[in-house]
Amino acid sequence: MIKTVHVSHVGRVRSVNEDSAWIRHLEQGYILGIVADGMGGHLAGDTASRLAVETLAADLATLESGLSAHSLTAALSDAILHANEVIFQTAARDEKYHNMGTTVVAVLLNDASGIIGHIGDSRAYVISKGAVRQLTEDHTLVNELFKNGQISKEERENHPRRNVLTRALGTDSEVKVDIDSIALEKGDVLLLCSDGLSNLVTEEQISKVVGAAENPLEERADRLLHLALLAGGDDNITVALFELPDDTVSLSEKGCDA
């Protein structure tokens, strides 16, 4: 049984939390998790991320059980594209929402395997056997510069324009969704997060905190959030964790003699 938790914090600088997060174990047996990081001013950013979560949650709540990976991919992609339409049309109808948008990273799990859909610079990582692997690719100007060999990895991490997005949800009438598949093994943890975490907490820190399986999942999520706050907390911070527990328990842990 996959364990889940999500936490969010406004941070030390912002007055409004424009992040939205949502996790549910759906009746059909799937697990749906969403993290969205809104932009466009406090009212607009908050609205964009909320609309993203609400649209995906509503669209995917009625999925049939036992769908193939291909069908789940199509369902998640369609839901994200629908959210793009909802946000774009809402902004077009009301001036106070002009140019609002949001990132989104969402996972639809069927037991230990699943599909990740993603737009923007909110990220998905998998932490496995002490190693951290980023599953998503940032849709940012700085990442494009890095891929083209114009800046180094170190320059990418510290670039003053690292938050400039090249793709977002709701800012244009049409958008491309990146889709990745994931298969969790026992002991693995999937992390979804906004850039308020990934900009301030290193992969080494993520590995150390999330890999400490002896600690409750809630405690590990809170610890990641606390590390981002200690590093400055200059943005909203959102963390969502999905763990496939390793149910191998030693004799000593059971209180038995070897």
Automatic annotation (TrEMBL):
NCBIfam families: Stp1_PP2C_phos
UniProt cross-references to InterPro entries, sorted A to Z: PP2C (IPR015655), PPM-type-like_dom_sf (IPR036457), PPM-type_phosphatase-like_dom (IPR001932)
Protein species of origin: Paenibacillus polymyxa
A Pfam family: PP2C_2
Native organism taxonomy: Bacteria, Bacillati, Bacillota, Bacilli, Bacillales
Top-level taxon in the UniProt lineage: Bacteria
Name of this protein: Serine/threonine protein phosphatase
Domain PPM-type phosphatase: 4-244
Gene3D superfamilies in the cross-refs: PPM-type phosphatase domain
GO molecular function term, any single one: protein serine/threonine phosphatase activity
